[in-house]
Amino acid sequence: MDLEQIRRDYGLGTLKREQLHDDPHQQFALWLQQAIDAELSADPTAMTIATVDGEGCPSQRVVLLKGHDSQGLRFYTNKQSHKGRDLALNPNICAHFSWLPLERQVSIKGQVEPLTDEQNDRYFHARPKASQVGALVSQQSQPISGRETLDQQFERLMAQYADQEVPRPGHWGGYLIKPTEFEFWQGGRNRLHDRFLYQLDAGQWTVQRLQP
């Protein structure tokens, strides 16, 4: 297999300044809805988030977007996980959406702030019970002796909470990403892609085209 020969040209569309909303949140909402409507995959809301640990080492993982409005983007996780520990030390984050069948990408930089207990409780108890129990069972990112141990703990707790509400673990909750930058990328022919960068400056968004 010659990886150097694997390529394709991008020609589905172009992106011009006059096509963009002045507010990047509105532009993101439009592209997100188009990705959902296109039924690209089972996970159109999947985003890769990058965090940095106390030694300056970055790491990435995929999470699901669970809310978006003019305030920012929301996702939920175990806050004792690798990413949770990173964010406790450094609230800076980058989120990336890759909708390559549409020849589009969006990168979002910002800082996180924790969601409220009310928000966390509301979403946690809206999840399927098995997912709630899974959050109780998993000490995310920690070593475990084997899969059997995890499955046994899960079955025990499913039986325990069969007829009662599952308590939300105190370490499980959500974050709001408050963006300071959005970059919208539309693939172009001959690798001359269209890129537009929104930056937040004194409460106002500025937009500029970037070279590919």
From TrEMBL:
<dbReference type="GO" id="GO:0010181">
    <property type="term" value="F:FMN binding"/>
</dbReference>
<feature type="domain" description="Pyridoxamine 5'-phosphate oxidase N-terminal">
    <location>
        <begin position="35"/>
        <end position="157"/>
    </location>
</feature>
<feature type="binding site">
    <location>
        <position position="131"/>
    </location>
    <ligand>
        <name>substrate</name>
    </ligand>
</feature>
<keyword id="KW-0560">Oxidoreductase</keyword>
<feature type="binding site">
    <location>
        <begin position="7"/>
        <end position="10"/>
    </location>
    <ligand>
        <name>substrate</name>
    </ligand>
</feature>
<feature type="binding site">
    <location>
        <begin position="76"/>
        <end position="77"/>
    </location>
    <ligand>
        <name>FMN</name>
    </ligand>
</feature>
<feature type="binding site">
    <location>
        <position position="127"/>
    </location>
    <ligand>
        <name>substrate</name>
    </ligand>
</feature>
<feature type="domain" description="Pyridoxine 5'-phosphate oxidase dimerisation C-terminal">
    <location>
        <begin position="172"/>
        <end position="212"/>
    </location>
</feature>
<keyword id="KW-0664">Pyridoxine biosynthesis</keyword>
<feature type="binding site">
    <location>
        <position position="105"/>
    </location>
    <ligand>
        <name>FMN</name>
    </ligand>
</feature>
<keyword id="KW-0288">FMN</keyword>
<keyword id="KW-0285">Flavoprotein</keyword>
<feature type="binding site">
    <location>
        <position position="195"/>
    </location>
    <ligand>
        <name>FMN</name>
    </ligand>
</feature>
<comment type="pathway">
    <text>Cofactor metabolism; pyridoxal 5'-phosphate salvage; pyridoxal 5'-phosphate from pyridoxamine 5'-phosphate: step 1/1.</text>
</comment>
<dbReference type="GO" id="GO:0008615">
    <property type="term" value="P:pyridoxine biosynthetic process"/>
</dbReference>
<feature type="binding site">
    <location>
        <position position="66"/>
    </location>
    <ligand>
        <name>substrate</name>
    </ligand>
</feature>
<feature type="binding site">
    <location>
        <position position="123"/>
    </location>
    <ligand>
        <name>substrate</name>
    </ligand>
</feature>
<dbReference type="InterPro" id="IPR000659">
    <property type="entry name" value="Pyridox_Oxase"/>
</dbReference>
<dbReference type="Pfam" id="PF10590">
    <property type="entry name" value="PNP_phzG_C"/>
</dbReference>
<feature type="binding site">
    <location>
        <begin position="140"/>
        <end position="141"/>
    </location>
    <ligand>
        <name>FMN</name>
    </ligand>
</feature>
<dbReference type="InterPro" id="IPR012349">
    <property type="entry name" value="Split_barrel_FMN-bd"/>
</dbReference>
<dbReference type="Pfam" id="PF01243">
    <property type="entry name" value="PNPOx_N"/>
</dbReference>
<feature type="binding site">
    <location>
        <begin position="191"/>
        <end position="193"/>
    </location>
    <ligand>
        <name>substrate</name>
    </ligand>
</feature>
<dbReference type="InterPro" id="IPR019740">
    <property type="entry name" value="Pyridox_Oxase_CS"/>
</dbReference>
<comment type="function">
    <text>Catalyzes the oxidation of either pyridoxine 5'-phosphate (PNP) or pyridoxamine 5'-phosphate (PMP) into pyridoxal 5'-phosphate (PLP).</text>
</comment>
<comment type="subunit">
    <text>Homodimer.</text>
</comment>
<dbReference type="GO" id="GO:0004733">
    <property type="term" value="F:pyridoxamine phosphate oxidase activity"/>
</dbReference>
<comment type="similarity">
    <text>Belongs to the pyridoxamine 5'-phosphate oxidase family.</text>
</comment>
<comment type="pathway">
    <text>Cofactor metabolism; pyridoxal 5'-phosphate salvage; pyridoxal 5'-phosphate from pyridoxine 5'-phosphate: step 1/1.</text>
</comment>
<feature type="binding site">
    <location>
        <position position="83"/>
    </location>
    <ligand>
        <name>FMN</name>
    </ligand>
</feature>
<protein>
    <recommendedName>
        <fullName>Pyridoxine/pyridoxamine 5'-phosphate oxidase</fullName>
        <ecNumber>1.4.3.5</ecNumber>
    </recommendedName>
</protein>
<feature type="binding site">
    <location>
        <position position="185"/>
    </location>
    <ligand>
        <name>FMN</name>
    </ligand>
</feature>
<dbReference type="InterPro" id="IPR011576">
    <property type="entry name" value="Pyridox_Oxase_N"/>
</dbReference>
<feature type="binding site">
    <location>
        <begin position="61"/>
        <end position="66"/>
    </location>
    <ligand>
        <name>FMN</name>
    </ligand>
</feature>
<dbReference type="InterPro" id="IPR019576">
    <property type="entry name" value="Pyridoxamine_oxidase_dimer_C"/>
</dbReference>
